[in-house]
Amino acid sequence: MEPHQIKKTGSIQKKGDSYFKYLELTQYTVVNNQKEKLLGPVDFSKYQAPRAVKRTPDQIEQKNGIMIRYFVYKRNEQNRVFFEIAKSQSENFDLDNEGINQYLYGLVEIPWKIDGPEFDVRKDGLLVTPGIVETNQRIVDRFSKKFPILKTILTNPREHSKYDR
């Protein structure tokens, strides 16, 4: 039998390259740039859908003055489906058959300044102490290069700080 042919009920039916690419995607994975056969099927029913939350900083983050915000995006719609999730959801993000489906969603961790002066403190033109507003705006600008939708989601650079009134 020739390659890319499958025998079916007495006749030969040719399968396209896309069929064999599909089989490869469902039966193999790439680990450290090496193709390895999956040990068993991926059971997508065990994954949980991400739940959008309005996160607040915990005591450790308040003490440190910086919180990590966790956002998920749908890989095939990264500029349309993008929302914040709880820290607990992010902790089991990359576990197989558990938590959020990492094949369907991507995770972005964004540092967020919540303590310090409201604006940058400069002396003789040099930055002495970074301020909350300008630091968070720089963070949003940096992450928006890859995810432009963040500029529409993170519009309050004072969020979670004492200046957020």
Helical fraction equals 10-25%
Query: Distance between termini?
Result: 73 Å
Largest sheet: 3 strands, antiparallel
Coarse structural class = alpha+beta
**Number of strand elements:** 9
Computed CA radius of gyration, to the nearest angstrom: 23 Å
- What coarse outline follows from CA principal-axis ratios? elongated
- Tally the structural domains: 2
Strand coverage percent = 25-35%
Write down the overall mean pLDDT. 85
Order of helices and strands: EEHEEHEEHEEEHH
Count of helical stretches: 5
As residue ranges, the low-confidence spans are none
Question: What strand order characterises the main sheet?
Answer: 6-5-7
Concise summary:
With 165 residues, the chain is an alpha+beta fold. It has helices spanning 17-27, 59-64, 87-91, 132-144, 150-153; strands at residues 5-8, 11-14, 28-31, 34-37, 66-74, 82-85, 105-113, 121-123, 126-129. It folds into two domains: 5-41, no CATH class; 59-153, no CATH class.
